[in-house]
Specification:
Blueprint (H helix, E strand, L loop, with lengths): L1 H17 L9 H8 L3 H7 L3 H20 L5 H14 L1 H8 L4 H23 L7 H24 L7 H10 L1 H13 L1
Length: 186
């Protein structure tokens, strides 16, 4: 039990440091000083700050999945994701504008693919489409929604009205599903 508390304390200290510093400025010494543990203790749990970054992002994926499990619809889920990222705005930006960009993109990709697949599959119920017919639609929306999130992050979570862009992107879904259904009937 103490092991988990120490590991979580290291992750929490890292997140606190991310509120004040870009990820590339945070050192193992800064983290261990904030926790009050030795470098040896840090290295017992993590091989380096990169691994700690992945651990923190994976924990956030799990946290968001729990939050979003009660959300209905693709629009509301992606708006919940944007709100979740906004709640952690400084941490997200300090991670994104440093070497943590890849881990943050992995976080957004994991959530995007999970929810896109889930909601397009649900949306297509009642339409006579096979999984093979839906696969390109799911992939198209995965990449589009992921790209929109990354673009929003690239612009420091400002300058882009994410909700409006999301509404425009999702407005085409009925057309795409209907078009596939019509072309398979012919």
């Amino acid at each position: 039990m103490k092991r988990n508390r120490t590991k979580i304390a290291i992750a929490d200290a890292f997140i606190q440091l991310l509120n004040e510093n870009t990820i590339d400025k945070i050192t193992v010494k800064m983290i261990t000083d904030a926790v009050g543990c030795s470098r040896k203790t840090f290295y017992y749990y993590f091989t380096d700050v990169y691994e700690l970054t992945r651990f923190v992002c994976d924990n956030h994926v799990q946290t968001f999945m729990g939050i979003a499990s009660g959300v209905e619809g693709v629009r509301d889920t992606f708006l919940a994701l944007v709100n979740y990222l906004n709640e952690h705005r400084q941490v997200v930006l300090n991670m994104f504008h440093g070497y943590g960009k890849q881990e943050l993109q992995h976080f957004t990709w994991q959530t995007t693919t999970f929810y896109t697949n889930r909601f397009i599959s649900l949306y297509s119920e009642g339409h006579e489409l096979t999984a093979q017919q839906l696969e390109p639609v799911i992939h198209m929306y995965e990449y589009m929604l992921f790209g929109m999130l990354v673009d929003w992050l690239e612009h420091s979570m400002t300058q882009i009205d994410y909700q409006r862009t999301l509404d425009i992107a999702l407005s085409g879904l009925p057309y795409v599903i209907g078009h596939i259904e019509k072309t398979t009937e012919a």
